[in-house]
User: What shape does this take?
Amino acid sequence: MNNRLIAREPDVCDAALVETIASMLNCSQLVARAMIRRGVSSIEEARRFLNPMESDLLDPFLLPDMQVAADRVRCAIDDGEHICVFGDYDADGVCSTAMLVQRLRKMGASVEYYIPHRHTEGYGMSVDAVRTLQEHGVGLIVTVDNGVSAFDEIALCNALGIDVVVTDHHSVGKTIPECVAVVAASRKDSKYPNRYLCGAGVALKLIQALNNGAYAPEELALAAVATIADVVPLTGENRAIASCGLQHIQTLTGLSALLRAAGFNQARVDEMTVSFMIAPRLNAAGRMATALEAVHLLLGEDEAHADEIASTLNEYNQRRRDTEYEILEEAERQIQAKDQLGRAVLLAHESWNPGVIGIVASRLCEKYHLPVILFADQNGVLTGSGRSIAGVDLFENLSVFSHLFVRYGGHARAAGVTILRENYESFREAFEHHIEESYQPEDFYPSFQYDEAVSLGELSSTRVKELRRLSPYGEGNPEPVFRFNGVRFASLRTIGKDDKHFCASVVQADQVLRLIAFGKSELLEPLHSAADWDLLARPTINEYRGRESVELFWICANASEEKVAFFDAFFTQRLYNEDCSNDKLTEWYGSHGTHFQIELDDVAMRKHYRRLQSAVSEGAVPLLSLIRALQNEELLALCVFTQLSFFAYDPDTAQISQNSGCTPRTLGESSLYRMLNDRQEA
Assistant: This one.
């Protein structure tokens, strides 16, 4: 197990507020505490959290430049100007494009839409695209989900007499483009209460501004899909957009067709449906072909034609999976070929699909808990897609090297960058050095937040089902995770394709629950060989043949803190820092370790010795790693054998190693062994 895993303890909740929320809103104290830990601080906020409504949507005119933007669009419609909605090729971009085009058509506008080809044009506006739109007679461009970094392209628009209204949500630098309006909650001067609208969220606000605050259910549905797909915080206004919009998703011809193609057969559409069925297929169009097909799907009303497009997107999604696997294999090969892994991973390859590298970067970021940027090298130009961890702002760190880029953009956790091949190596070295110098090792330790420690017996089906009142889950509102102390694992076995996953029984006292761990089959050996774990897991309800049962999904596990504290204390405090007399050990063990027992016969001790030899066969091993990996009996045996000098503990490095050539000794020469033996005989 990774001995750097950190389980972050939850904040202590105000007991009076917990009691008040639970009684006033008829919910359990478990749910009340979960809401408080997600930022709720009053009864009214709790009521809005449990019952998000469309009335929670904010005034669109609080956004900077919104009045100017709405006036300019209305003027273009009234004057018959040709308008272009300039979108992006991801799920957020195609939803934004479809909803605004549909609204402008309803208002009688002359409108077309343009989405750049991911593989040939890259992200955002380009000079060629602007000149093409000029040839089409476009007088006004309205961007959605892009534009805040298109300085040169907007300058060209100005020179050509094309007005530009930018609506975007990506991070804004020190300046903004010179155009009619830049509508973005992320602007430094923005006073809009929700700084984390996605691109479609901003487009929805523009629609409200154009329509006296109103919008259609299908527009809210598309905004919900984009809000969930783009992983913006699902709190406040975003929570209302997602929760209320989910109810209307199946009213859209295109989304219903996409769900049929994906094999959807559930009673209701939720955030998981969007994340794992809808969003990947919308994204697959831009990754594997052209995002225009996804927009056609969302704008279409003919069911048969929608089914055809949805089937195509489903095929793209399967091809995307195959391509993703190939890129991941090559990236892992490059990582393994490195002498050492630093604090950032930057890799490039000429055969990688630029539309898929972002997904692989996300996987590697999660696995290694480091910022990762992968580059597709195409004809001397490298297109990169990056993902980062909490606390390491990718956009901010890339901004340091903006002079080396053709273009770049994004936000703290995800960003895109285009760079000439001749600048890549110098950028890679400088970026890695910058990250190395700017952060401490502990910034890269993976940590997991949990809601609270509970026993297995506390999670009844009724209580777990009630937790669904906290949904939709997502960024800023994670699905509840609980800590289960002092559990052991039984009936461990691998499951799934290529045995990548495993299931087990989690045992705590007389309570047993089933556990599923996806992609974690490599953990079976340490789980088999050790006991007394503190487990973090997410509870859910499993329905099988009409019966409901609580099931756990693995998050992480560490050796129990009690076990770590005891054995760490023996080596660091008792064995080397104090006189290790029988009397003192007896006194200390009697206060701290009576629940750690051991079989003391010669056969058992020989077995433990062979196991310990195997565990430290390749040189010095960190003590903490052994504590996490070994059973309590084996660790007590290690204490005995270390007293006998068969093993050595280095207090400076906190590592255990074997002593070669030590003189034969009897077990009775260990004061700890004598004490344990006396207790056993007594």
